[in-house]
Specification:
The protein is mainly α. Helix content is about 75%, strand content about 0%. Helix 1 crosses helix 3, helix 3 packs across helix 5 and helix 4 crosses helix 7.
């Protein structure tokens, strides 16, 4: 089968099944954006595997199976992301919160949500993974100096966000985000 035949076949399958696969995803995702991602990935897989794609009704069922697996992967990724966020928030709370102020956890959560994803990722690499700026630079594909500057700025933005949610956090600016054990 030629590439043009594959393309024509894919376009026909897409037109015939798109609304059904989209409906399947929308009914199972928490947002339209997530559903769109699931559908897009489903059709990317279908395009890549066009030579294996069954004809007729079996093709539609095959797409449902692909969409189900994509959705399962999406849910696992989302759970991991939420778990990482909660772990980072707990770590920051452990480092900075007074032990008797459990209600302040909300302030840390709120401060973290005020940060850009890139800042949260930098803080996570430093706190969770224990990476130094050189290692962070390797992960991000930038220079050590750029990673050090980005991490410094992320820490400052976190402190400012924390000050907005917890006025008592004003003294944190002078403390490092990671406390190293001495000795």
């Amino acid at each position: 089968m030629s590439e043009q035949d594959d393309r024509s076949r894919f376009e026909a399958v897409y037109r015939r099944t798109y609304e059904q696969i989209l409906g399947y995803a929308v009914r199972r995702c928490s947002s339209p954006e997530d559903a769109a991602d699931v559908v897009a990935e489903t059709y990317v897989i279908a395009w890549r595997r066009m030579t294996e794609f069954p004809d007729g009704e079996a093709g539609k069922l095959w797409l449902y199976g692909v969409a189900r697996r994509v959705l399962a992967n999406h849910r696992r990724s989302e759970r991991r992301r939420l778990t990482r966020h909660a772990e980072l928030t707990d770590e920051i709370e452990h480092l900075y919160a007074a032990p008797s102020h459990h209600s302040e956890q909300h302030g840390v959560d709120e401060a973290m949500t005020m940060l850009a994803d890139s800042d949260r990722e930098l803080l996570a690499l430093a706190l969770w993974e224990g990476l130094d700026p050189g290692e962070i630079a390797t992960v991000l594909g930038c220079s050590r100096n750029a990673a050090r500057i980005r991490l410094h700025r992320a820490r400052k933005r976190f402190v400012k966000a924390l000050e907005k949610t917890r006025p008592s956090a004003a003294g944190f600016a002078s403390r490092p985000l990671i406390e190293k054990e001495s000795g």
